[in-house]
């Protein structure tokens, strides 16, 4: 069984580092594995800049500012359309502002790779039906799954929060 991750770069503000496409495919596959998703899946990932993601954020979420990632699930309640040619479940689209990912990696003091992997895993969980907008236990469960998946990818948190307390 093989999953298809289609990756498109629609921005020219920042460089797409070598290896980032492989990392995104690994992150998608790790999230599917974590959720025991046992059917072939198709996911689309698009890189945009802050200006483009702000337009999408305004259009779909009524928030006219740049965000880091948007998820557009194609399924609901575990039911997905299937690609007639391949039989794969079409999970949906992930849109990442690579420009914002660079900014956030810098702010949080970790690698761009960890930031992009986090955004991909976060979005994959949305495509698989998770929602954190209302907070509570669902948000906590989602965060735990994100961290577990990143650890599996070898991208656990490297930031120590105790430095400022010494």
Commentary on this structure:
The protein is an alpha/beta fold. It has a single domain (4-165), classed as Collagenase (Catalytic Domain), CATH 3.40.390.30. It contains five helices and four strands; from the N terminus they run βαβαββααα. It has helices at residues 20-34, 50-61, 98-108, 112-127, 136-152; strands at residues 4-9, 41-48, 69-73, 89-97. Strands 1-2-4-3 form a four-stranded mixed beta sheet. Helix 1 links the parallel strand 1 (4-9) and strand 2. The longest helix is centred in the last third of the chain and has 17 residues, at 136-152. The protein is globular, with a radius of gyration of 16 Å.
Instruction: Report the uncertain regions.
Output: 159-166
Give a quick account of the main beta sheet: strands, pairing sense, barrel closure: 4 strands, mixed
Strand order of the largest sheet: 1-2-4-3
**Named CATH architecture:** 3-Layer(aba) Sandwich
How many strand units?
4
**Helix amount:** 40-55%
Percentage of residues in strands: 15-25%
Q: Would you tell me the structural class of the helices and strands?
A: alpha/beta
CATH superfamily: Metalloproteases ("zincins"), catalytic domain
Estimated radius of gyration: 16 Å
What is the global morphology? Answer: globular
- Terminal CA distance: 50 Å
> What is the CATH fold-level name?
Collagenase (Catalytic Domain)
Overall number of structural domains: 1
CATH class annotation: Alpha Beta
User: On the 0-100 scale, what is the average pLDDT?
Assistant: 90
- The number of helices is 5
| Order of H and E elements | EHEHEEHHH
């Amino acid at each position: 069984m093989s999953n298809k991750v289609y990756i498109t770069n629609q921005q020219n503000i920042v460089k797409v580092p070598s290896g980032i496409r492989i990392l995104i495919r690994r992150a998608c596959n790790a999230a599917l594995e974590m959720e025991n998703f046992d059917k072939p899946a198709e996911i689309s990932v698009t890189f945009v800049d802050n200006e483009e993601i702000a337009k999408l954020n305004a259009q779909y979420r009524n928030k006219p500012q740049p965000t880091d990632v948007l998820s557009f699930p194609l399924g609901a309640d575990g039911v997905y359309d299937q690609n007639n040619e391949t039989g794969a479940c079409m999970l949906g689209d992930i849109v990442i502002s690579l420009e914002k990912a660079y900014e956030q990696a810098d702010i949080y003091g970790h690698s761009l790779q960890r930031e992009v992997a986090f955004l991909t895993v976060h979005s994959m969980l949305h495509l698989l039906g998770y929602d954190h907008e209302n907070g509570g236990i669902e948000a906590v469960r989602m965060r735990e799954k994100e961290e577990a998946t990143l650890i599996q990818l070898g991208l656990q948190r490297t930031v120590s929060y105790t430095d400022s307390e010494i």
